[in-house]
């Protein structure tokens, strides 16, 4: 368990910035204490300073996980955001997409969101902008990348992809043996 290097911090914050913008500061300086990001076995964990001090007494080989896993670095040192970060990203998301009830299950199985399943979309969402996907009852389901801008979504045909799937809460069931 160690602090992130400058390049690793930049990669993590660039990825988080796609979804929550300047609200990254709100993740670190929270009213209930100071939080930080730590790297352990190529995974980035989000934890409080209090928990960090307690975890310092545990040997590195014995430590399995601490805090919440935000994602991991691939072998090529690219940061991949994990679905376990959804609960922290959803309240601060700048761009949101709501899917219709009939399209929720399709998204939770790992499919992209089609125009026919799109309920609402935040105004002024740019193409290839990171978005958090919600059900119509405002329950966060996952996140992805907008394939079309808000303006293009209005005039595209119903079978066109509007949000590329990246992660969803269905991964808890599909990948339960590999998630930490």
Fill in the keyword field for this structure.
6-stranded mixed β-sheet; 12 strands; alpha+beta; single chain; 27% helix
Give a brief rundown of this model.
The chain has helices at residues 6-20, 24-28, 49-55, 86-89, 101-108, 150-155, 171-174; strands at residues 2-3, 29-30, 33-40, 43-48, 68-73, 79-81, 96-99, 113-114, 118-121, 130-135, 140-146, 161-168. It has 180 residues and is an alpha+beta fold. The model has no long low-confidence stretch (mean pLDDT 90).
What sequence of helices (H) and strands (E) makes up the elements? Answer: EHHEEEHEEHEHEEEEHEH
Which band does the percent of strand residues land in? 25-35%
Radius of gyration: 17 Å
SS-derived structural category? alpha+beta
Shape: elongated
Q: Report the uncertain regions.
A: none
- Number of helix segments? 7
- The tally of beta strands, per DSSP, is 12
Distance N to C terminus: 15 Å
The helix content, as a percent range, equals: 25-40%
Biggest β-sheet strands, sense, barrel: 6 strands, antiparallel
> Kindly state the mean pLDDT as a whole number?
90
Could you please describe the fold and organization of this structure?
With 180 residues, the chain is of the alpha+beta class. It has helices at residues 6-20, 24-28, 49-55, 86-89, 101-108, 150-155, 171-174, and strands spanning 2-3, 29-30, 33-40, 43-48, 68-73, 79-81, 96-99, 113-114, 118-121, 130-135, 140-146, 161-168. A hairpin with a 2-residue loop joins strand 3 and strand 4. The protein is elongated. It starts with a strand and ends in a 6-residue tail after the last helix. The relative contact order is 0.15. The model has no long low-confidence stretch (mean pLDDT 90).
């Amino acid at each position: 368990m160690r602090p992130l290097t400058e390049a690793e911090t930049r990669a993590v914050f660039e990825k988080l910035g796609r979804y929550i913008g300047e609200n990254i500061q709100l993740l670190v300086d929270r009213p209930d204490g100071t939080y930080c990001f730590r790297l352990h076995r190529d995974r980035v964990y989000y934890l409080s300073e209090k928990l960090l001090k307690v975890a310092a007494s545990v040997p590195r080989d014995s430590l399995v996980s601490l805090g919440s896993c935000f994602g991991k670095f691939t072998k090529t040192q690219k940061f991949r955001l994990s679905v376990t970060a959804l609960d922290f990203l959803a309240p601060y998301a700048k761009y949101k997409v709501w899917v219709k009830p009939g399209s929720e299950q399709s998204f939770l199985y790992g499919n992209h969101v089609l125009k026919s399943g799109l309920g609402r979309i935040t105004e002024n969402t740019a193409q290839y902008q990171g978005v958090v996907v919600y059900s119509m009852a405002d329950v966060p389901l996952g996140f992805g990348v907008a394939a079309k801008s808000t303006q293009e979504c209005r005039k595209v045909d119903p079978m066109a992809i509007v949000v590329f799937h990246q992660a969803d809460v269905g991964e808890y069931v599909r990948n339960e043996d590999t998630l930490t």
